[in-house]
Design goal:
This protein is of the alpha+beta class. It folds into three domains: 47 residues, 2-Layer Sandwich (Uridine Diphospho-n-acetylenolpyruvylglucosamine Reductase, domain 2), CATH 3.30.43.10; 116 residues, Uridine Diphospho-n-acetylenolpyruvylglucosamine Reductase, domain 3 (2-Layer Sandwich); 112 residues, 2-Layer Sandwich (Enolase-like, domain 1), CATH 3.30.390.50.
């Protein structure tokens, strides 16, 4: 690994000034579980590593019934996995975090690092898309907000500029009778990359089980995580049946753009998009029936 200068700012302003100064010569470290491996392999060779873990604003985890959930970029995956409010209000997000690595990795790894690494198989990404999360991005030049669906531009590519930092994520408070699910297909029972990942978030009507709103997202089947709007439209305004689930699953399979590799063929991934979408939607609907 190439020698580098380690920097540990304690305020957001200080971190942004460092990024503005060093730009392409710097990399941000939140947990380091991805970054250190990529540096060891020579994928990244920064002159400066900026550790953001000591910045309080980036470690925020707050929920407000009106404003929703605010999660700082340096918040650990383990904290997300075990947060009582996330387990209750956003179970798909807790499930996605739980699927990443081991407990030791999740105690170090951060939600912001997982997002900014931008691997198509990232377990937490489909859930965040199905929750319509918004990213707050800052630099010394100012701030901007980006829907997370627009944050990813390709494999390991995002909209972040060299002097920009992901500060936090904002997710709306769920309406009554809203819940979700994340389901992952993998080869090994633990610590494996997703072959396919599916997240579903649904809202049911107050009087019956009619689906008022649906959001379905896929991971590991395209260069970026993707929303499946055709499947969402199939579900809205209808009470769930096996026939409707089949329609939604087939729409998800059509939306997928998988590749064949050593872990699975494109055909197998596409078939699993269908089956796993059915499972994820069914589980989300069952949870929504009892959600406050």
């Amino acid at each position: 690994m190439k020698d580098f200068t380690y920097l540990a700012p304690t305020t957001l302003g200080e971190a942004l000034d460092l990024l503005s100064t060093h730009r392409e010569r710097a990399k941000v470290l939140a947990g380091g579980t991805d970054l250190m491996l990529l540096m060891q392999d020579g994928v990244f060779t920064p002159d400066y590593v900026i550790d953001i873990r000591r910045i309080p604003e980036l470690n925020t985890l707050e929920f407000d019934p009106q404003r929703g959930l605010l999660v700082g970029a340096a918040t650990t995956l383990r904290r997300i996995e075990t947060s009582p409010v996330i387990l209750q209000k956003y179970p798909q997000l807790a499930s996605g975090a739980r699927e990443i690595g081991s407990v030791q990795i999740r105690n170090l790894g951060s939600i912001g690092g997982n997002i900014c690494t931008a691997t198509p198989s990232g377990d937490i990404l489909p859930s965040l898309l199905s929750l319509e999360a918004t990213a707050r991005i800052a630099s010394a030049r100012g701030e901007r907000s980006v829907p997370l669906e627009a944050f990813f531009t390709g494999v390991r590519k995002t909209v972040l500029q060299p002097d920009e930092l992901l500060v936090d994520l904002r997710i709306a408070a769920p309406p009554p009778r809203t819940s979700g699910s994340y389901i992952k297909l993998y080869t090994r029972p633990a610590m494996d990359l997703a072959i396919v990942g599916v997240a579903a978030t649904v809202t049911l009507s107050a009087g019956d089980s009619t689906i008022q709103r649906a959001r379905i997202s896929l991971g590991a089947v395209a260069p970026t995580p993707i929303r499946v709007r055709e499947a969402e439209e199939i579900l809205v305004g209808r009470v769930l049946t096996d026939e409707i689930l089949a329609e939604a699953g087939q729409a998800a399979a059509r939306a997928a753009r998988p590749i064949s590799d050593v872990r699975a063929s494109a055909e197998y991934r596409r078939e699993q998009c269908d089956l796993m979408t059915r499972r994820a939607v069914r589980q989300a609907v069952e949870r929504a029936k009892s959600a406050a």
